[in-house]
Amino acid sequence: MRIRTRNQTYWKLISTILIIVSPFSYFIYFGIRVGNIYDEILSFQFEAPPPDIDQFITANYTRLDEMARVYDDLFQKNHLPLNYTATCDYVDGNYTDIANYGFSDNGALWTGVAMAGWVFHYVAAINEGNTTDQEYSLDVIKRMVNGMSMLMIVPNGGLGPEFPGILGRGWAGPEHKEIHPSLFNEHIRHYNGTGEYSQYRWRGHTSNDEYGGYYMGLALCLKYVDDPYVQTTVGLIIEQIANYMKETNFLGINGPGGPSGVDQKPRVYTGAYWLSLLFKMASMVNPDEYLVDYHHFVSAEMAFMANTESSKNEVMANYYAFNFAHCVVFAFLLLEGIESEIGSHYYKGYLNTLRYYTEFHRNAWFNIVYLALSTEVGDRIDIERDIEDQLHRLEINHFPDRHYPLLPVPSEYKEVEKILQWKAEIDNHNWASLYHIAFIETDWDDVYFTEPLTVEYRRTGHYMWERNAWENTTYWHDAPLHEEPGMTFTTPYWIGRAFGFILPSGYREV
Predict the structure, then answer these.
(1) How many angstroms separate the CA atoms of 472 and 447, rounded?
(2) Which of 67, 307, 353, 430 is most deeply packed, by most CB within 10 A?
(3) What CATH number labels 51-414+449-499?
């Protein structure tokens, strides 16, 4: 009888493992290869030369204030027909009569982003002792809080924790058919309201984009706007969503009752800001009911370990995701603060991921969030001046925020050659179809530059800062009678002013 030696047993085990693993070896190699390609093609956003600060426009704070007043005046007159954010088209070049309003698929998102500008306008007015401005901004905030509440009331039949908590993308009452006619058309995303709002209409299939801006708008009102109507209404909305999200295990629900695709539970080491922000808000509204939940979800549900947000891949895929990621990160860190153990840990996650990915994008929104969270005035003059430069450049062809002609991109902007090289190699590879699946969300056909474009070369929209500054404008039509809400200027401007980075008047001296 043969006696198997220890070495023979060892090598047989190794051989068995190799036989089992070998069919998967190519796929392991393929996964590593795809990761390496991503790293190489996306490196351009970290390798861009720093902008020449000597070429920045020196801030004229008096002029920036004048611009802010124009944008704000137009917004409150022409961009809140149902108390949530819309675009408009004018009848003629007098820019007085409205021909029609435009409601995007992201009414909750854009109202939340616009709310950030108005809340910090309110804060700046308090800081500066301007009671007239305080009352003016509070009036607009109240209107938007009303519009945001209707995004909760219409789908669910009422406001408060006793009602379900489905969030709508938009809403309109039966008396608003002339203002928002498209919502009364048959569409897979359009539904009748609930209960006494059954004659109302709302738009569903709500995504995380919506929740991100909506949560931020609620959070900023909760923290900064000490008004009974605002506090009561926002508090009811927050409790309604918090209760419902607990019931659905943090899944978004659509009009017919099935899942919408939203899932706000933390994933492996990422995505904790959503749940954490919601229950931080709820714990501030009703600590007896929700403070235990907040601490439970942060600790026991692994949120504390998932303190990162977003991906560097978004620069060639879903750039807009950077925007709503900043919404939830900004809101949570303002509420929690960065001094507590929880806040400090989440703040480090922000710096290591979302801020790291977007630091060199010359994005005034991303930059003002970073400054507001992390530094004192004057600590990062380069970033302060970058923001001021971009805001001033909006006057070239985005003031007011209409579809004026863009300036041609100068020849100094060079295309990222490695993207073209990798696209050619992948297209001609034997496994091209498999590679195309791996890069399915990557926008290979667009033109990317080795440095971000400044605003005069970029198309506007509800919020220019959700658009990719590294990417060439591939389509545009001049339409000077079409006006956007102007928050591309006002949101970063008023945040900067409330935190003291932008002065009410005068010129930058340093």
Answers:
(1) 5
(2) 307
(3) 1.50.10
